[in-house]
Amino acid sequence: MTQPDGPERILALLAKAHAASPVAVVLRHAEREGITSGAFGNDASLTRRGSDSAHRLGMGLSSRMMGVVNSSPLPRCMQTADATIAGAGWEANATPDRLLGDPGPFVVEPELAGRLFLDIGIEAIVRQQLADDQPPGGMRSTASGVKLVLRELAATLNGPASVFVTHDAVLAALVGHLYRLPVDGFCWPDYLDALVVWPDSDRLRFLWRGQGEGSHPVGG
To answer: Minimal CA–CA distance to 153: which of 110, 194, 108?
Structure first.
């Protein structure tokens, strides 16, 4: 059976979230151009299919009032945010947010961490983040980085649909930590995969593809 694509997956998760609550959609950018091995690919743009998919996601969100739209400053993420806004018909501009990328919530020494990303790859980095108490070189602890992201989400959950566009490395570490799972225990973020988050008293509740509903204290 054909698996639903990114916009459909996100909308299916949103349908399971508490309908009366504000909701945050923390998503990986849409399909991008290929990146040469050994390069960071910071300038990679969306493909035409990626742009169309983000636009369709926006159309699916169009019935919801907009909260905020924040995005990693890298082009593929800002383009995803812009296409989503256009599809939804929202009167807004995406706000560049370095907590979501460049460097993101986990990197504190970009040069040191950057070399490690190139040497061993993203999945190996995230595997170490989820398995070890000691963070990879140039990075803060996974728990501390996740706390920074959750704090931002909690502060902006004041509208029915807030969108945060990030990268697979950030999203994978966030999902794995929240569900207390190793890298092999959950679906690695595909293009336009999303963690859907909403408030419930003093906790944040969340959903990820292939996992049940989880919760985490707002404060950490």
So the answer is: 194
Give the Cα-Cα-Cα angle 44, 150, 31 (nearest 5 degrees): 20
Beginning with the edge strand found earlier in the chain, give each strand of the sheet holding 214-217 in spatial order.
95-96, 66-71, 161-166, 24-28, 194-200, 203-207, 214-217
What's the CA gap between 25 and 11, in Å, rounded? Answer: 10
**Token digits for 219?**
């404060």
Successive 10-residue mean pLDDT values, the chain, 220 residues = 70 81 92 72 85 95 85 96 95 94 94 89 94 89 95 84 94 97 95 93 91 85
DSSP-assigned letter for residue 183: G
CA of residue 57 relative to chain centroid, distance = 14
pTM above 0.90, yes or no: yes
The CA–CA distances, whole Å, from 81 to 85, 88, 100 equal 6, 11, 12
Find where tokens 């990626």 sit.
50
